[in-house]
Write a structure and sequence with these properties.
Blueprint: E1 2-8, H1 12-22, H2 27-36, H3 42-60, E2 68-86, E3 92-108, H4 118-135
Antiparallel strand pairs: 1-3, 2-3
Helix pairs in contact: 2-3
Length: 136
């Protein structure tokens, strides 16, 4: 369950700040955090998260998104557009306009039922013994 965003026009260093915030969180918690985040990269990553959830539903048949967890978000360097700015005395300096490739991976984490504490289990066993003793 994966979604990829290619050539997003923001530097990878800035996008990683947002991507690292949602690693390991459930989809619902990640969406909530991205909605509240004032960074520019929050909206495209939220859209990417929605795309990954849609891929999970369509390709893997997952119906309950509460079990989905963001397992990994990688932000890699994309194309670098080179532009030039005129400078003093007829020279020029290069301006690098960086892009990012973002890959978001989801996994389905099954929620296990909590086991009864040992004390509660002992009480249950004691009650069962009493019921058996009364029947005999």
């Amino acid at each position: 369950m994966k979604a990829i965003l290619k050539n997003y026009r923001q530097s990878p260093r800035k996008v990683r700040l947002v991507a690292d915030l949602i690693k390991g969180k459930t989809v619902v918690n990640a969406k909530t955090e991205l909605n509240a985040l004032p960074k520019r990269a929050a909206f495209p990553i939220e859209t990417l998260l929605d795309s990954a959830v849609a891929n999970a539903k369509a390709n893997n048949g997952i119906t309950n998104i509460d079990n989905l967890v963001v397992s990994n978000v990688t932000v890699n360097k994309g194309l670098v557009m080179k532009r030039f700015m005129p400078r003093a005395r007829g020279s020029a300096s290069r301006i690098n306009k960086r892009t990012s490739h973002v890959t978001l991976t989801l996994i389905e984490k099954l929620v296990e039922k909590k086991a009864k504490p040992a004390a509660a289990a002992k009480k249950t066993v004691a009650k069962a013994k009493k019921v058996v003793a009364e029947k005999e």
